[in-house]
């Protein structure tokens, strides 16, 4: 698996799309840091970008990479290599190269700016972590979708739909249901619902650092316990890890059953 | 070397293999023939473990292949369409496959044979279809495996390479390998194959030597024999009442 | 170099000689002296005398003082209430107390015990004392023309009902509360029916309820204070003409917690204050004709929540920087003016380069309205969906009050952020500088 991972990774980091992706983050972060003196503002802007772009690009890259390397995958399948090794290797290659682009593209400007030792160091680490987690989660989901759909158009469409669902539609539905049932106690519901969406979950991880003053304005005991202590942070991290593991298990399951 | 018992496979409603029993136990070249959609590629992919059978069993060297991968060390496979990661060069691809399969290989003489040296530094995306096929052939033959499976090996090859390929296959036969070939080029079958397996609608319609094939249908060439086989197929029921292939001869 | 203790003694002696020359005798009190109790010394004292209390612990219960005196502690003498007594109750027309540690007053649910109580007094100075574990620490009632300066007050308050205020003023006039450090009480400074007074340079932190609490007190001025991490921030209620200048309000977190709570405050000015990391920077209700100018709101949950009944308020030249929500205006139809502020999330442009954005800014987001109605929806903060909602609302307001708009948003922030009170240094230990020009202070009261 490590060999496949290595080749997928090399293959991808030499692709111009990876350079474009990395360069985009680099330019974006540099210009944000250049334009704004307030590091926390930069973190907020980047948060909006990471929540939107990381999943989108990971989804697209994942689906694209799978379909583009299908024949090569068949070549590999005929080699004496374990099936799961091939797909895990490729998936980790995609997720790894995307994460590397993200870490390099945003990390270097921040480090040059001197984020270590500033008050924003914690936020910066959370941001980096969330970017990596989202890259893994959504490229995993993309692989799963592509594995389940031989038809490229269908696969692409479904992947975009999944992204759109998690990025926008889910929140809309959540907000509607919160408004609809506003007479009921909704603390647990709203927290659980946000856990079930990796983008929301990542967002909350950042909010816990960035907007804790506003979050503390709520009376509910569950909220207070969740937000005010390390409890929320730990639960979020655990669920985020689960979100990485679940698509991986799916990839394993499908890859063991699929005909090529 | 390869034993196939009652192999069944459907893709959705499409029943591709309807109980295939086959054994390749002697060294030599077998041509797997049949019209498009008859199940040739599915059969080959089943042997390679790329397609998972619904029912039946495949054994390679006496062991079932289900959920195993080590047995593929004994198989060299030439896929039908050769597409590789676009960003790699030929050299990198070769070293990568060597890296993956682990053991040393005799690739240099194959590179010379197909005159690939000038292309070693080129990216695979910049190669013509023929050159790719040559790279594909190098990848297949650089391992010394007892079983060789070739899916349309001549696609896109120039005449010189074609001649060299035939020589190569001959050499492998001489080395006592079990070789399966699918092709639409009947002259190739005529030149190389000792035996023919004819698949039709997911069943083995004919199995036997070239000689028997030609005699059975009273034709002088394989091409004609196949043509009249298909003619006959249209007019008479293909299978006998016990469900066995009608024209199998040992 | 002279030893600090010698300097202290010399200073004290010099001052006492001066005091004696000006005002009267000195009566020394120490555990081994002929006069060994403070009560006895006070009994002996004539008006304008000085009672000099030397190092030691004095557990005399409630000491009643009805004379014009100077009570001076040398070497940080301790007055201990034993947990069940008020300690000093003073009724005087000219009084100075300095240099004591007053401790163990004890909680009472029936009487408001204090460490130092000034009752119907005037011309007094309470300075450089430490008040530890007090129920009420310094309690001024019906007094005027006094200074409470540089005291260190640390309580152990656990709940609001069982705790008193650090500095409590009731029916007072012309009082200066200056450079005190107040922590661990119910309110840091409490003023009820107090007029024409000044609160400055204080640090109030970790108090259960408010750092500073005004009730029915008019014409006051508080400035350069720091209010940090108090239960509910600072409350100014039912008062008029309060000037609030250069204070820092920070880290007041909680569901009913505010940097500054304004309730029925009229005709006041809030200028150059800093509101940092509060759940709500300013909450204002039924407050009219207030001017908010050059304040900085940064990293608050809500910079300002404006509830009902607020008319003719002016917000201008304030900086709103990186707050989760800048503004929540809960009722439509109030005629407040929001022009000329700096909003860090202003997305407009300034083509004519006059420093004023060419596009009006709507500081009240739709999501701010949604969260007020459905608090749980806070989990959706900063999500793309919410951004889309906010954007569409910005384009055509439906839910948020239409007149909450800055027609001339500034492109650059206003400079001059409040520094508040400096962090406590030597002033924690008043014993470090005893006898610091008593008469001067007493005379500054005007």
Please give the number of β-strands of chain C.
37
- Main beta sheet of chain C, described? 24 strands, parallel
N- to C-terminal separation of chain B?
17 Å
Strand order of the biggest β-sheet of chain B: 6-7-8-3-9-10-11
CATH class of chain B: Alpha Beta
CATH superfamily of chain B: P-loop containing nucleotide triphosphate hydrolases
By DSSP (H or I, 4+ residues per run), the number of helices of chain B equals 8
Helix coverage percent of chain C: 10-25%
Give the second-level CATH assignment, the architecture of chain B: 3-Layer(aba) Sandwich
CATH architectural arrangement of the domain at 1-217 in chain C: 3 Solenoid
Radius of gyration of chain C: 25 Å
Strand content of chain B: 25-35%
Radius of gyration of chain B (CA) equals 19 Å
Low-confidence stretches of chain C: 424-446
> What's the tally of helices of chain C?
5
CATH topology of chain B: Rossmann fold
Largest interface: A-C, 42 and 35 residues
Identify the quaternary structure here: heterotrimer
In percent, how much strand structure appears in the residues of chain C?
35-45%
Question: What are the main properties of this structure?
Answer:
heterotrimer, A: 260 residues, mainly alpha, globular, B: 250 residues, alpha/beta, Rossmann fold, 7-stranded mixed β-sheet, 4-stranded antiparallel β-sheet, disordered C terminus
How would you sum up this structure, described in words?
The complex is a heterotrimer of chains A (260), B (250) and C (446). By secondary structure, chain A is mainly alpha-helical. Chain A has one domain (2-257). Chain A is built from 12 helices and no strands. Chain A has helices at 2-13, 16-35, 39-68, 70-77, 83-113, 121-148, 152-180, 187-195, 198-210, 212-215, 221-228, 230-257. The two termini of chain A are 19 Å apart. Chain B has one domain (2-248): Rossmann fold (3-Layer(aba) Sandwich). In chain B, helix 5 (159-174) links the parallel strand 7 and strand 8. By secondary structure, chain B is α/β, with parallel strands linked by helices. Chain B contains 8 helices and 11 strands. The model of chain B is unreliable at 238-250 (pLDDT under 50). In chain B, the strands form 2 sheets. Chain B has a 7-stranded mixed β-sheet, with helices on both faces. By secondary structure, chain C is mainly β. Chain C has a domain at 1-217: Single-stranded right-handed beta-helix, Pectin lyase-like (Pectate Lyase C-like, 3 Solenoid), CATH 2.160.20.10. In chain C, strand 1 (26-29), helix 2 and strand 2 (50-53) form a beta-alpha-beta unit. Chains in contact: A-B, A-C. The interface between A and C is large, with 42 and 35 residues.
